[in-house]
């Protein structure tokens, strides 16, 4: 009897190998994010209706909303970066330009199924309608390779991930993975990687205390994060590099980041950021 799951995965991998060159073509033509590039989270909703709600989470990178300052709500959510609300009109223009440019990118191959236990080489992969994903997707490639996933190329389609993990293999970079979504993107208890540009709301609910998200969450509607450790990307086009991790110790000096359980006498930074002593890192009885 044929193992259909194994057969499907093998077929996908074999097909994907034919389109490695297409990844280079996408990388060369990838749209610039312009003024959006340093936003980890952006609610670019029209008419000033943007909103970002962050609860029991951390965000490394800038956060923006088209709404007023009160539209960015933090509940136990330190943000390492600027909070800009409302964002300049140019930010909204650049987001929409990038979103529309990705919508016009041609597909290398169309996918179906949950992508569980599937390995994909670089390329442009499309779902004609909605994508409901679970399990582990492995992306295998080099440090300059790119992956573009388009959800809802027929005009409608949401991205839903439940217990879904994206794993980078080889020297592939999470910030070189892009997810264009015609409608909403909803992640639940997932370990997600990549930049999402969504036509509707983005919602990510992790497992307490936090689940990782490395990339960007850029939406035409509200963005809601709960129990998420969000590490944003930087760079002028689709792709880029991850924000640096903290290595806070006495005397390390400013690193522009919050290592977690620190003495926040200065907004969103440990005391060592301003020449003081870091707070209790939570590791007792271990290495001194």
Task: Walk me through what this model shows.
This protein is mostly beta strands and 288 residues long. It contains three helices and 21 strands. The chain has two domains: 232 residues, no CATH class; 39 residues, no CATH class. The strands form two sheets. Strands 1, 3, 4, 6, 7, 8, 10, 12, 14, 16, 18, 20 and 21 form a 13-stranded mixed beta sheet that branches. Strands 5-2-19-17-15-13-11-9 form an eight-stranded parallel beta sheet. Strand 20 and strand 21 form a beta hairpin. The C terminus is likely disordered.
How much strand content do the residues show? 35-45%
Share of helical residues: 10-25%
How many strand elements? 21
User: So how many helices?
Assistant: 3
Average pLDDT, to the nearest integer? 82
Salient structural properties:
288 residues; 2 domains; 13-stranded mixed sheet; globular
């Amino acid at each position: 009897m044929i193992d259909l799951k194994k057969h499907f995965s093998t077929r996908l991998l074999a097909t994907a190998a034919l389109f490695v060159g297409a990844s280079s073509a996408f990388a060369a033509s990838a749209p610039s994010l312009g003024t959006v590039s340093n936003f980890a989270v952006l609610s670019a909703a029209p008419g000033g209706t943007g909103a970002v709600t962050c609860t029991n989470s951390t965000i490394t990178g800038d956060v923006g909303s088209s709404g007023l300052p009160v539209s960015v709500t933090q509940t136990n959510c330190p943000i390492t970066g600027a909070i800009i609300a409302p964002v300049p009109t140019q930010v909204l223009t650049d987001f929409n330009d990038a979103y529309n440019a990705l919508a016009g990118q041609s597909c290398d191959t169309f996918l179906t199924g949950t992508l569980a236990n599937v390995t994909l080489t670089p390329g442009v992969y499309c779902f004609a309608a909605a994508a409901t994903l679970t399990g582990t997707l492995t992306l295998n490639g080099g440090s300059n390779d790119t992956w573009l996933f388009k959800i809802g190329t027929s005009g409608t389609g949401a991205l839903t991930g439940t217990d879904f993990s994206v794993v980078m293999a080889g020297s592939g970079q999470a910030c070189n993975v892009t997810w264009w979504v015609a409608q909403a993107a909803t992640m639940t208890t997932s370990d997600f990687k990549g930049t999402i540009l969504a036509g509707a709301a983005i919602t990510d609910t992790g497992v307490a205390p936090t689940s990782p998200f490395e990339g960007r969450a850029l939406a035409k509607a509200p963005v809601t994060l709960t129990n998420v450790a969000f590490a944003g990307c930087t760079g002028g086009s689709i792709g880029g590099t991850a924000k640096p991790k903290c290595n806070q110790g006495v005397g390390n000096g400013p690193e522009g980041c919050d290592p977690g359980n620190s003495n926040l006498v200065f907004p969103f930074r440990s005391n060592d950021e301003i020449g003081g002593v870091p707070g209790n890192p939570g590791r007792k009885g271990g290495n001194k």
